[in-house]
Amino acid sequence: MRRLFYLSILFLITCTPKVKEKEVTQRPNILFIMTDDHAKKAMSIYDNSLIKTPNLDRIGNEGIVFNRSYVTNSICGPSRAVFLTGKYSHINGFLDNSSRFDGSQMTYPKILRQYGYYTSVIGKWHLKSVPQGFDYWNVLIGQGQYYNPSLVNMGDTIQHIGYATNIITDLAIEALENRIPKDQPFCLMVQQKAPHRNWMPDTTHLTGEQVYPLPDNFYDKYENRTAAAEQDLSIDRMFMSLDMKLDPERVIETGSGGAPKKSDVAAGWKRNLNRMNKQQRKAWDKYYMPISDDFFSKGLSGKELVEWKYQRYMNDYLKCIQSVDENVGRLLDYLEEKGLLDNTLIVYTSDQGFYLGEHGWYDKRFMYEESFGMPMVMRYPKLIKPGTVNNDLVLNLDFAPTIMELLNIETNEPFQGKSLVPIMAGEKVKEWRDGIYYHYYEYPHGWHKVKRHYGVRTNRYKLIHFYNDIDQWELFDLENDPSEMNNIYDKADPELIANLKTLLKKLQKEYGDTISD
C-alpha cells in the first residue's frame, strides 16, 4: 500500500517546462556531496588545528576553495530547499524545519533530468515530501539513524545493517553502477546524516580521546547582545545521555538540550542504543562504559563539568567527520577507477556551519560567522585551475544557476542566485555582489530559542536585526572583531549604519522579502 501511495504521487508530478540546450561537446557529470552541520573549522583545508581531512582537502587542492561561502538561512531543511531551487526560503516556501517542501516547484535536478541526465539522491532528504525530479531516490526517514538506519527506496522502507555514512556511500556507488545506459551523464546527490547531532561515531573510530583547546570566547558573557544571551544552545545544557553518551541506567538527566519541551531523553537514548546489533553494542560499550565510570567517579560541577562536556562533544563530532572523509575518498576512488573523475564536477559542502564551542555553543541558526558560513570546495579540471582560492561572497543560492551555466542550459526559471562559473574559471568578476542577505525564521516554535532575525553582510561589516518579540540591532566590524564579540551599533558612525540599512532594504526588495517586524 505504501509503495502504491508513493508511485501515485510520482505519476501525478507536473511536467517541467521546456528548457533549451546549447550545443556542448561533452556534458560533465555532477557529484554533489552534502553533509549536515559541518563546521568549516573541522575541515583541514580551512583550519588544520582540529582534524585532518585529506580526501575533502583533495577536492579543494585540485580545484577551488571558497573562503566566503554562506547560507541564506542557517538550518537544515531550508538550506537544502535553497540549494535545490536557487530561491530564498520565503520564495520556495520552506521557512523552517516545520515546513513541508512543495515538490511540484522547479528544481535544478528536474531541469537536468529533462536535459538527459540520470538524476538521483541518496541519504538525508529532510524535506518531508516525496523527492521529485529524480530517476532514483533512496532517502533516510527524517533525521535518520547512525546505526542500522532505515531508508525509503522509491517508496519501500528497508532497514540496512551497518553505519549510515558507509551505507549511504555504498548505495550511491550502487546507483551509479546500476544506471542504464552507463554512458548517460549523471547528477548524483550524496547527502550524509553526519555530523548531525547526536554525533555517534562508527565503531571503527571508537579509540582514543583527544584534548581540544577551548575557543577564546568559550565563556562569552553576551554583553550588549540580548538574543545571544537568551538562546538555548549552550554546551552546558547538553543532554547527559543523548549527547554525552553516559550510561542511561545511571544518569540523572539535567540538560535542556534546546528541546521545545522536556521529554524523556533517557528513553530516547535507549532507543538509539537498541538499534545496534550485538557486535556493534559490544564495541560501543567497550568504549563508552569506561567513560561513564570515570565521569561518575569524579562528581564534576561548574566549569569542570561544562569543559568535560565540551571535550566529549568535540571527540564524538570529529570522529563522525573522520568517517565522512574516508567515504568521500571512496567516492573519489570509484570515479577514478571508472575513468569519470576528470569529467565530473565534484562539490563538497554542508547545509550550514556549526559552533564548536565558540560563544560556548553547539548548533547553528545565528547569522554569526561559524553557523552562517559553510564549507564549499569544487573540483572540475576542465574549468578550474588546481589550487584556486576565492574570497568573494557566495551563497548556497548560487548553486542552481551555476549548474545551468556550466551545462549551457538556457531556462526562464527565475533563479535568485548568481552563477559561480566565471569565479570557478578564475575570472575577476567586475560586478559581483557587494553584500549578502540572510533571514532566519524558526522562533518561537523551534528548538534552541534563537530569535528571528535578518541581516546583511558586506566584506567588512555585518548588520543584524532581531525581531518578533524583540527589537535589537547588532553591528560588527569583522575586520577588527572577527569573533563578533563587540556590538558597535550604538556607537558606530550614523552614516555607516544608514548605508548598511539602505543596502539591506535594497536586497530585501531585490529578493522580494517583505518584512513584518
What does this structure look like?
The structure is a single chain. This protein has 517 residues and is an alpha/beta fold. Among the domains are: 203-314, no CATH class; 438-511, 2-Layer Sandwich (Arylsulfatase, C-terminal domain). It is 31% helix and 15% strand. The protein has helices spanning 2-11, 54-61, 76-85, 89-92, 108-114, 164-178, 226-229, 265-274, 278-298, 302-337, 369-372, 399-406, 421-424, 494-511, and strands at 20-21, 29-35, 64-66, 69-70, 118-123, 136-140, 150-153, 156-159, 186-191, 344-350, 376-379, 388-390, 394-395, 409-410, 436-440, 453-457, 461-466, 472-477. The strands form four sheets. The protein has a ten-stranded mixed beta sheet, sandwiched between helices. It has a four-stranded antiparallel beta sheet with strand order 15-16-17-18, covered by helices on one side. Strands 1-14 form a two-stranded antiparallel sheet. Helix 6 runs parallel beside helix 10. The N and C termini lie far apart (46 Å).
